[in-house]
Fold this protein.
Amino acid sequence: MTRRSIGIIVNGVTGRMGYRQHLVRSLLAIRSAGGVPLADGTTVWPHLVLVGRSEAKLREIAERHGLDDWTTDLTAALARDDTQVYFDAQVTQQREKAIRQAIDAGKHIYTEKPLAEDTAAALDLARAARAAGVRTGVVQDKLFLPGLRKLKRLLDGGFFGRVLSVRGEFGYWVFEGDWQPAQRPSWNYRAADGGGIVVDMFPHWHYVLAELFGEVRAVSATIATHIPRRVDEAGRPYEATADDAAYGIFELDGGVIAQLNSSWCVRVHRDELVEFQVDGTEGSAVAGLRRCRVQHRAVTPKPVWNPDLPATEDFRSQWTEVPDNEDFDNGFKVQWEAFLRHVATGEPFPWDFLAGARGVQLAELGLLSAREGRRVEVPELSL
Ligand SMILES: NC(=O)c1ccc[n+]([C@@H]2O[C@H](COP(=O)([O-])OP(=O)(O)OC[C@H]3O[C@@H](n4cnc5c(N)ncnc54)[C@H](O)[C@@H]3O)[C@@H](O)[C@H]2O)c1
């Protein structure tokens, strides 16, 4: 089988997402599977050039995985003729500058979300990439979660009738870092370092809502910094200046109302760390990361409100599990494969920089809504 190598610069590979989801679970997994097969019978083989700030950490990661191409010099990696793709999983604040450099070097670009820190910068990157003729992509991993794939299957099959509303709960308790270490990096809790749950989660909510239910037309959000003081990786206390919870209402095309809570200050009493309940005229579903359960109109019981009596029904048992019916691979890997096919063959890839800019816009307008205490309409973005 003919194998063609694509040189991929992986920047931010020492970070949580860069290492685990992108290097190990996606790119190395693709290599273990022999590459990405194309329709013409050839295979795309990712050649990885690891980039980061710490020589020692890069060497250690490279050796652990049998890789030998790494550098702390991004400019040199971008100057190489054998690198075609630049990937960015750095902290958000470092992204725009590095992507601009990659566009100037004529590389195709794939990046973690959010694409940039504000909508103007994100749109500017999208326009610059188009002008340079390079292909672009932004991570939209939640679309590939088994639970959401099953939800999409239900929508495509007309299960819901008319969708009325979506209610989502995302979150878990992120430790403050004093008596137990925090399980997320401390920059997430400092506004000046690009932190905050709105910029982290609203880009995800944008593509989930737009792809499944309809484009977001208006947003109302209330945000909070519930835990004002945390302790960082080095054991130093710091002021948490970024929002750690966001309570949002999103009005979608076609009249669907979505209400999504995102919080790092909530203890989990759910089956999964994110769950969406969708109610439609014909049926309802509750989808999480992996599972999806439904209740059809024809089998909906008739609860009667009577607070004087203990509940007699086991409401959860009245729902039916949606079967897998297919194999679900890691979502990050599936999207990487699609992006590499897009680069190699021009196969369509809808999750480009303009799609990423829409996610940044929703975060920006969510914060504006919270700051001014009002509902904000979301204008259509175009290049
Ligand atoms: N798709 C998702 O579900 C998802 C989840 C979490 C984070 N993310 C995104 O991934 C990106 C990285 O997040 P993470 O949680 O992996 O963060 P992290 O702190 O674990 O990793 C950050 C990476 O950036 C590098 N870096 C480069 N310049 C830096 C600087 N000046 N200061 C600090 N670090 C610098 C670090 O060395 C490290 O490799 C963020 O943009 C975040 O929004 C996406």
Summary: The chain has two domains: 3-140+331-351, 142-328+361-372. The pocket of nicotinamide-adenine-dinucleotide is lined by residues 12, 14-18, 52-53, 89-92, 94, 112-113, 139, 141, 185, 200 (CB under 6 Å). The first strand starts at residue 3 and ends at 11.
